[in-house]
Specification:
Blueprint lengths: L22 H16 L6 H28 L6 H7 L1 H22 L2 H5 L7 H31 L4 H33 L5 H13 L2 H7 L5 H6 L5 H12 L1 H4 L14 H28 L1
Length: about 290
């Protein structure tokens, strides 16, 4: 009879005896990790190139506008118009950031690990959505603060500083609207596939391919259709809400673009709310389906 040859080694394993954090901490960790992911923080240098290139462009543009204003004494673009002019960059930022937030997890199959923790199924997509909204709002809002600081330092007295602040605050809310609408649409599209390239292409297609529809509807021989044309694209939808709510800060030429909304300004606002609500509802339904597999 041979003697047993197995050996048990004591490797010093100990059970975890520290505090077990709950739902709030898990949600917060997902949110903070999501914000960092959108800017490539904690990842490879390659992953940082595009997001920080976009950050550099928007800050450079804001600094240029501030310098020109200091020289000529006149604001070229209002704070709200700055968000409109940077919207095309936001589209590509979303196309890169949203797949990084959700498509990678879908493809690698790590969602069961997330859901094995005290994390309700809805918290995962909501944390990712909040992270993307925060990143987009920072992308548009932080340069606006740079413009405000430049204007405040060149202002003649506290009255002008106060006027600058009254222009800035609605523009920050407008930037938040851009962030909420773009993040909701982009994250929903990205959640449909685990392939980042397909997700990025789908996001760009949704935003850019709907724009020609607006152009077509805006030239039809119907005033009502022309005034409602902006509802066909997320970008022009947001611009329509801005023109209705912030007309004095956005419209410099009454005959340009979507400035002729007629009586349909509230319709644009309701459509924006419906779009965000619909996207969030579908996003939550998507992750209930994923979790049920």
């Amino acid at each position: 009879m041979s003697e047993p040859t197995g050996v048990i080694h004591d490797i010093g394993y100990q059970r975890y005896t520290g505090p077990r954090l709950g739902r709030r901490q898990v949600f917060g960790a997902l949110y903070l990790h999501g914000v960092r992911t959108t800017f490539g923080l904690g990842r490879s240098a390659k992953a940082k190139i595009f997001p920080w290139l976009v950050v550099g462009i928007v800050f450079t543009f804001a600094a240029t506008l501030t310098a020109i204003r200091a020289q000529i004494g006149e604001m070229i673009l209002t704070y709200a118009q700055f968000a409109d002019n940077m919207s095309w960059l936001v589209i590509f930022f979303v196309a890169v950031a949203a797949p990084e937030l959700v498509s990678r997890d879908l493809r690698s199959g790590v969602l069961p690990l997330y859901f094995s923790r005290p994390l309700p199924r809805a918290d995962y997509p909501l944390a990712k959505l909040l992270a993307l909204v925060t990143a987009l709002w920072m992308l548009l809002g932080a340069p606006q603060l740079v413009m405000f600081l430049g204007g405040a330092f060149t202002a003649d007295g506290m009255r002008e500083v106060w006027d600058e602040l009254l222009d800035l605050l609605p523009a920050l809310l407008y930037a938040g609207l851009w962030a909420v609408v773009f993040a909701s649409v982009g994250l929903l599209v990205a959640s449909l596939t685990g392939k980042r390239a397909f997700a990025a292409g789908g996001i760009v297609a949704v935003f850019l391919m709907t724009t020609p529809i607006v152009g077509t509807l805006s030239i039809l021989p119907s005033t009502a259709v022309n005034q409602l044309a902006g509802l066909a694209s997320p970008s022009t939808l947001v611009q329509g809400v801005g023109i209705w709510a912030l007309r004095d800060l956005l419209v410099t030429d009454p005959d340009a673009g979507l400035s002729g909304l007629g009586p349909f300004g509230p319709v644009y606002a309701l459509a924006a709310v419906a779009l965000v609500a619909g996207c969030v509802t579908l996003l939550l339904a998507r992750y209930r389906k994923v979790a049920a597999r």
